[in-house]
Each structure stands twice: as C-alpha cells, then as structure tokens.
Amino acid sequence: MKMRTIRQITLALLIAMHGGSALAQWQYNGSLDVANGFERNIFRNPETLIVPGDTLGRPDLWQNGMYQTLQSDNSIKRELKKGMLRLTANGGVGVYHTDVPANRYHYHLGASYRIRYSDGRFAEIAPSFDRVKRQGIDITDIELRTPFSYHKAALPVHLDFYKGRRVWIRTEGGVVGKLYDRELNERLQYVAPYLLGEVSKKWIAAHGAVKASLHSRAEWRRIDERTASINGSTGEFAYTDRLRHWHFYTIGIDVKYKSHNEKWRMEAGLHRMVRIERDQLLTYHHTAMNANVHYRLKKTGFGLASVYGVRNYPTLAPGRNNTTPLRYIYTRLALTTWYELNKQLSIHASYLLNNRDANNPTETMIGFRGYENMLLEAGLKMNF
Hints:
Layout: H1 3-15, E1 27-40, E2 49-51, E3 54-56, H2 58-61, E4 65-79, E5 83-96, E6 104-118, E7 121-125, E8 128-134, E9 150-164, E10 167-180, E11 187-204, E12 208-230, E13 237-259, E14 264-277, E15 284-296, E16 300-312, E17 327-340, E18 345-358, E19 371-383
Antiparallel strand pairs: 1-4, 1-19, 2-3, 4-5, 5-6, 6-7, 6-8, 7-9, 8-9, 9-10, 10-11, 11-12, 12-13, 13-14, 14-15, 15-16, 16-17, 17-18, 18-19
C-alpha cells in the first residue's frame, strides 16, 4: 500500500466524526514504524528460584525471544475561531517468537481543545483512553498481583499562565481511572484524582537556550481489589474484597538545554516521590536522577538516556526471618541512533537495559526480587 493511500485512509478515519469537513482545514502528522528485535528475560524474572527439591536458574526462569512490532502514530489539528482542536489515534502490536505467550497490542485515543481566554492565560481540556492487552500477571509488582492488560481513561484540565520574561506557571487537575483485566470473577481497579503544578523559566544565550522547571504532583488513588482463593476442603472459590488508599506526592527539578543550531539537546533531572499507604506496609520513598543527551547532524543522530533510582520501603521486609526493609535500585539505559534516507523514510536502531537490584535474600520468592531485562531493536520509520 502506497504511503499516500495510508495517509488518506488514516486522515479520513480521524475526521469522520466531523461530517466531511474539508481536509484542507486540518493539519495532519503521522508515522508508521516497523521493527525487529530481541528481548532477554521478557517477563523480568529473577536469576534463581528455590522450589521444593530443586533450584531453578536462568534457563528455567528467563524467556528470551525475537519479536516484530508495528506502531502507527497519527494526529490532526485545526485552528478554530477561539482555540486549537487536536485529535490523536495511536496503536501498535508486538509479536513474539517464544513458547510462553508474550504477544501484545495497545492503542491510544485522545483529544484536546486549547484556548487563550485572555492575555497570557490559557485553558485546555484533554480527555484520553488507552487499552493494553497482554496475557499474564506482572510478577515484578506482586503488591497487588497486577495483570498486564487494562483499560485506562483520563480527563485532565490545564490552566497555564505566561508571566513575561519567559516565565510560565502551569497547572493541571483531573482524574484517572484504570480497570485491569481479571479472571475467576476477581477485580482490580482504581480511580485517582490528582493535581499538578509547574513553574519554568527560560534563558536565551549566544550558544543556545536553557530552561529550568520546578514541578510537583499529588495523586490520591482509591483501589478496589477482589482476589480469589480455593477452599481446600470444598474446592470452591472464596473471594476477599479490600479497599486500599495510596497517596502519591512528587517534587522534581529539570534543566534542559538546546543549542541554537539544534544539534545538541541535553536534559538532567532530580525527582523525589513518596507513596503513603494507610496501614504503612507498602509505603515507599523513591529518589531518581536522569540524564539525556541527543546529537543531530543533517541526516543522522544519536541519543543516550539514563535513569538511576533508589526505592526504600521502611516497613516491608518480605520473606521469612527477614528483618531488613526492602530496597530496590533501578538502572535504566537507552542508546539510540537513526539515519534519514529521505524526507519520509528513516532507519533506526536501539539498545535498552532495565535492571533492578533488590536486597531481598529470600530465594524461595519470585516477587520482590531483582531482575535484568535487555532489548536490541532495528527498524524502519515512515513519516506522512
């Protein structure tokens, strides 16, 4: 199928709801990305696990395999009399060649309407809906026995204020809802109102521009959980309902730099997050630092992104006879490169490493453990 045909079909689907509005009134951006890759330890299992009568290692626990992905990102926008309307439709699939089912698909639908209601004052509403489908339970997150598959809806409202001299104050408030796929009449879902604020300042110099921002976020998550267990005497399922309250509080600072010729982009940040649970068992404190560098030439470019984080659970010590509070250390690294074949086609390659070290000494547990996950990928991207 020719790229022009793909573009026309996607654009027609996105604006069908507007009763045949003229295409010239809309500005369209879209891309189609196909890639092949290899992932090691797809489900992020630990290196060892002691079971009755045996000790399992990497060959038993780690699922590795080749995969193919297809990703499409599309957006259209239109200037109206009082503001800007934008619609987005993104989606993708991943097909794995492993014995254990690992295939997935996802899509995102979103809309936003932004207006300037007075000098230096802006308002925006941006509802969205997401769907992720993949078999299995995320064993790295056994606090709630979280499935990979879910539906998610969000309704944020933005109020932004330009104060002059390149100073912005941005605020956001809204609600997020998430419903996980469950079997056996189990249930896991939450609703979370949240507030966000940010103050940013930009400086222009001879060599480039520097932007610094200070931001904070508060989220109050109400989790409705139902779990199933088998009654040993009757063989029937018994259900336990529980209502959890998790409060998240985050503060962070980010500094960004972009050279005037746009060859260099750099970013560094420091963030602190606290999650508070009412009974304190799953409360944690998380500190993370990130650094990103991107360099671009006429037709090619390189990128490096890194994150280092430490998460401490003051009152959680998993395992028998263990009194040491749980601590995770996260290390994430991404290396990317790309080359433009022409204005519409480019090739790309990437290496991603996700590591989590844990001080949990109980090797009979599969959860609350460390893991190592790695991906190698190369692909072709088409811009419309």
